[in-house]
C-alpha cells in the first residue's frame, strides 16, 4: 500500500513542536500515536510510521525532545547513546505526557471518529503505558517499555486494552521485572504480554545490532492482530 508523509506542527501553551505524519493510501483510517525511542524521530521511527501507514493507519510521531532541540535525530554508536541517555534524563516526563495529549488532539483532527492507539518503543513504550493510564487512547502497545515495572501504581488506571512486548535477553529490563509486571496485571484480561526468546533490548530496530528478525516479525504480527481487534 502506498503512503505519503510529511512533518506537521503542533501548537501547545509552551510552544510549537513537529510531528511526523504518515498517511495510508486514501488518507483515512484509525490513528496511531507513535512514540519514539531515546534516539528521536529518526529513520527507524519514520520507517515504523510508514510501515503502519502501509497497514492502513494514520500515524503521527511527535518530536518528544523538542524542548532540547528540534528534530534531534541520533544513530546508535557510543556517542549517540550518551547523548540519547542525557536527553532522556533531561526530559520532563510530565510535559512529555502533555505533548502526547496535544498529539492525540492533533491526530483526532486527522481521523475524526476513528479510534486511536499509542505505540511506543523503549522510552516511548513507558510513555505509551502512561498514555493509556491517562485515558488518552482507546488502546496501547509498549515495546520493551523501560521503567513500567517502576510505575505499577498506575495499573488500576489502565482501562483500555494494553499489549506489551519484551525480550527474554533484555539486559535493560530483566525477566524478574517482566514477571512483576505480568503478576500485577494477571487479573486484567485486557492486558496481553509477549516475551520473545533470545531477543535483546531494541529487538524491533533493524538499524541496531540487537535487531532480532524473528522477534520483530512475531511482535508486529501480534500488534496487527491486537489493532484489528481493538480499533
Structure description:
36% of the residues lie in helices and 23% in strands. The protein is of the alpha/beta class and 231 residues long. It has one domain: Alpha/Beta hydrolase fold, catalytic domain (Rossmann fold, 3-Layer(aba) Sandwich). It has an 8-stranded mixed β-sheet with strand order 1-2-4-3-5-6-7-8, with helices on both faces. Helix 5 links the parallel strand 7 and strand 8. The longest helix has 19 residues. The chain is globular, with a radius of gyration of 16 Å. The mean pLDDT is 95.
State the main characteristics.
231 residues, alpha/beta, Rossmann fold, eight-stranded mixed sheet, 23% strand
How is the secondary structure organized here?
Layout: E1 3-12, E2 15-24, E3 31-35, H1 43-54, E4 58-62, H2 78-90, H3 93-111, E5 116-121, H4 123-133, E6 139-143, E7 162-167, H5 175-184, E8 191-196, H6 213-230
Parallel strand pairs: 3-4, 3-5, 5-6, 6-7, 7-8
Antiparallel strand pairs: 1-2, 2-4
Short description:
The protein is α/β, with parallel strands linked by helices. The protein is 36% helix and 23% strand. The two termini are 19 Å apart.
Q: How many domains is the backbone divided into? A: 1
Total number of strands: 8
Q: Which structural class best describes the helix and strand composition?
A: alpha/beta
CATH class category label: Alpha Beta
Side by side, the strands of the main sheet go 1-2-4-3-5-6-7-8
**Average pLDDT figure:** 95
- Shape verdict: globular
CATH topology: Rossmann fold
What proportion of the residues form beta strands (DSSP E)? 15-25%
Proportion of residues in helical segments: 25-40%
What is the CATH H-level superfamily?
Alpha/Beta hydrolase fold, catalytic domain
